[in-house]
Design brief:
Layout: H1 2-24, E1 40-43, E2 46-49, E3 54-60, E4 63-68, H2 74-83, E5 91-92, E6 97-100, H3 106-143, H4 149-182
Antiparallel strand pairs: 1-2, 3-4, 4-6, 5-6
Helix pairs in contact: 1-3, 1-4, 3-4
Length: 184
């Protein structure tokens, strides 16, 4: 049964990692290469992620530089960035693509905070679902006679402790991202 507790902790950690990946994609007014992760580029006859055709670097807090490995893909990279719907306007000099990151308006910041809170709520729901799943597993083990009623209570309490700890981690990640988004 202890393996189930470890598996529950791993599953909850997976939900936290997924939240971290989603939060990294949210634009905060600061240039970061992760902003361009959703960009797909038509190159060599198929759609490819931008990071498979170019190197993306943050030149400073307001500028991303995309350095394509094959200079013939520059126009496709520009089209991909524009069509990704990120509100970014790339420009190129024939060698590299510069992507200025405009500062966020106050309304946009509020929208992003709502989006962050929504992602956080989804993560909490995922963690609670994992809790329910493992609680059901322990309850059925008790019903089958594999564990005693006292052991069931102990396992359910440990699952609840794991849930509370992971929800607290979600809250702290959300608070940090919200401060980052609202920072001018």
């Amino acid at each position: 049964m202890d393996e189930y507790l470890e598996a529950a902790a791993d599953d909850m950690n997976g939900a936290l990692e997924a939240l971290g990946r989603e939060l990294a994609k949210i634009r905060t007014g600061r240039a970061t290469p992760k902003l361009l992760e959703p960009v797909q580029v038509e190159a060599y006859g198929s759609m490819m992620p931008l990071n498979q055709v170019a190197t993306v670097k943050a030149a400073d807090a307001r500028l991303l530089v995309v350095d394509p490995w094959d200079k013939t893909t520059i126009q496709a990279i520009e089209r991909g960035i524009v069509s990704a719907g990120l509100g970014l306007n790339p420009s190129s000099d024939g060698q590299i693509v510069r992507v200025p990151v405009p500062p966020l308006t106050q309304d946009r910041r509020k929208d992003l905070v709502r989006q962050v809170k929504s992602l956080g709520e989804d993560s909490k729901v995922r963690i609670r679902h994992i809790r329910r799943e493992y609680n059901d597993t322990f309850k059925s083990a008790e019903k089958d006679g594999d564990i005693s009623e006292d052991e069931l209570r102990r396992f359910l309490a440990k699952v609840q402790e794991l849930t509370d700890a992971h929800v607290a981690k979600v809250e702290s990640a959300l608070d940090a991202k919200e401060k980052e988004v609202l920072e001018v």
